[in-house]
Specification:
Elements lengths: L1 E8 L2 E5 L5 H5 L4 E8 L3 H11 L3 H9 L5 E5 L2 E11 L5 E11 L2 E7 L6 H9 L1 H4 L3 H14 L1 H18 L6 H29 L15 H64 L14 H23 L3
Parallel strand pairs: 3-7
Antiparallel strand pairs: 1-2, 1-3, 4-5, 5-6, 6-7
């Protein structure tokens, strides 16, 4: 679905135009066209490919999606893929994509499988005509900056959830629930890192060394984006290490709880074993057992059994087994 198609000149908006009018504006000096699509159809992408002379491989990637974050050059056109992360209906992380084509006089963004729009980015650029005057390179930066900034809340959420779980690890009986939540957090952190790390590596092409011509005037802005990605990636690495530690600690707590249960069972088994031994001895049917003829033999036997069991219970209790 075509969301926007706008022509700009010298940082100022000229008009909202149709796809058929794009060619008229591309020929005008100091003018570029910004097109935004959501879940573009075959016909829409084919029309844009024809108008902007987009490379067929890049168009294929934008259409099929499920691409690794990357930045590639096709002649004087730049093609970038970035992941859009958002929470789904069941609080699971959902990953969409935005594919961006950047040329000297056009920029096309194709958003797939995501409800996150970029209307705020367009408004921001139009509020800063002195920056928008730098052309499509600044628009590309604004889009990338918006995508990267949206990663920060997810990182903060993961950190807060991990802190909460770390406080619950040493609570009795919570080990099973904790391990499930820790694995969910680890999966989320891994998924977010898959969006950040490749994009961080790709962004190095946009500042320092040989920079694509469309981004030559905005290298310092892309360096700022790279710094943000570097910080997020470092935080995710630390988070993953902490998650690994928390999982090991939680598994250790499971082992400790099982050991405590085993000790309790062993202590009670020892107590009943002593009682069973006494009863077994006095339950033998021998004729010459003096205590069997004694009037107080039965109460005395019960007393001995109770006293020995009580002594063993006291010893186990004192040693922490009960």
């Amino acid at each position: 679905m075509l969301l926007n198609c706008v022509a700009y000149r010298q940082g100022l908006k000229l008009a909202d135009i149709s796809v058929e009018q794009i060619g008229d504006y591309l020929d005008q000096p100091d003018t570029f066209v910004w097109v935004a699509l959501r879940d573009g159809t075959d016909n829409e992408l084919a029309a844009l490919q024809k108008v902007f002379h987009l490379h067929e491989l890049a168009v294929e990637d934008a259409h099929h999606g499920h691409q690794r974050p990357k930045i590639e050059e096709y002649g004087d056109t730049l093609f970038a893929v970035m992941h859009l992360v958002e929470f789904g209906p069941t609080d699971e992380l959902h990953v969409g994509e935005v594919a961006v084509f950047v040329g000297p006089n056009f920029i096309v963004s194709v958003r797939n499988r995501s409800s996150q729009g970029f209307l705020g980015v367009r408004e921001r650029c139009e509020r800063e005509p002195q920056l928008l005057r730098q052309g499509t390179g600044f628009v590309f930066y604004a889009l990338m900056d918006a995508v990267v900034d949206r990663y920060f809340p997810f990182v903060e959420t993961l950190e807060d959830e991990l802190e909460t779980l770390e406080e619950q690890i040493f609570e009795n009986g919570s080990a099973r629930a904790n391990i499930q939540q820790l694995y969910v957090l680890k999966r989320r952190a891994t998924l977010l890192r898959h969006a950040v790390a490749p994009l961080m590596d790709a962004t190095t092409k946009l500042h320092g060394g040989r920079v694509p011509p469309v981004c030559a005037a905005t290298t310092e802005y892309f360096r700022d984006v790279y710094d943000h990605l570097l910080r997020i990636n470092a935080t995710l690495d630390t988070l993953r290490d902490n998650l690994g530690t928390a999982i090991h600690v939680n598994l250790s707590m499971v082992t400790i709880e099982e050991s405590e249960t085993t000790k309790r069972l062993a202590a009670w088994a020892g107590i009943f074993a002593v009682a069973t031994a006494f009863v077994g001895v006095w339950g033998m049917n021998f004729q010459h057992m003096p205590e069997l003829q004694w009037r107080w033999g039965y109460p005395a036997a019960l007393g001995v059994i109770g006293a020995v069991c009580g002594l063993m219970y006291w010893r186990f209790k004192r040693s922490g087994w009960l």
